[in-house]
Design a protein that fits this description.
three-stranded antiparallel beta sheet, Lipocalin, globular, mainly beta, 59% strand
Length: 162
């Protein structure tokens, strides 16, 4: 749908987790990858103010983004122009103390894609972050979103299907 180039597609497959920071003034969302240069950090004012960000697909141009609070959940709204202009929503929801669900819905060129990413908190002495896995209802641990296809190993971590 977004026609990601090969480098970005591989970097997305190697996402290792996220860090979420929430204060009354701002919501910070950081995505970490095993590839050092692939890191996304977005800071949204809780006022709902619309800000400009780099595009998540690393193409030229900017995306407009803002956060909305819906009860205990946060929604990040994004819009971006050509090439492959569209809009998206990330729904952030805590499921228990150690599990974060992010449901993402993308609308591009008349097509819609949605996927659920589940992050389980990994505790360490320095900081707390969530390691991720995605699900979209496929049996036997397989899931797909965009051009990605993964299999989960015994440890329930994503594995690239060969």
């Amino acid at each position: 749908m977004m026609h990601l180039n090969g480098i970005v597609r591989q970097a997305v497959k190697l996402v290792r987790g996220v860090r979420i920071d929430l204060t009354p003034e701002k919501f910070t969302f950081t995505v970490f990858s095993y590839i050092g240069w692939f890191k996304v950090k977005e800071v949204y004012p809780m006022s709902g103010e619309v800000l400009q960000f780099k595009r998540r697909d690393l193409r030229r141009g900017k995306a407009q983004g803002w956060v909305e609070q819906h009860g205990d959940h946060l929604h990040v709204q994004l819009k971006w122009d050509a090439p492959f202009g569209g809009e998206g929503t990330d729904h952030f929801r805590l499921v228990g103390e150690d599990e974060l669900h992010i449901e993402s819905v993308l609308h591009v060129a008349g097509q819609t894609a949605s996927y659920l990413t589940v992050y389980n908190r990994k505790h360490d002495r320095n900081h707390r972050h969530h390691d991720g896995r995605s699900e979209d209802g496929h049996e036997d641990g397989e899931h797909r979103h965009g051009d990605q296809e993964h299999h989960r190993g015994r440890d329930n971590q994503p594995r690239q299907k060969r």
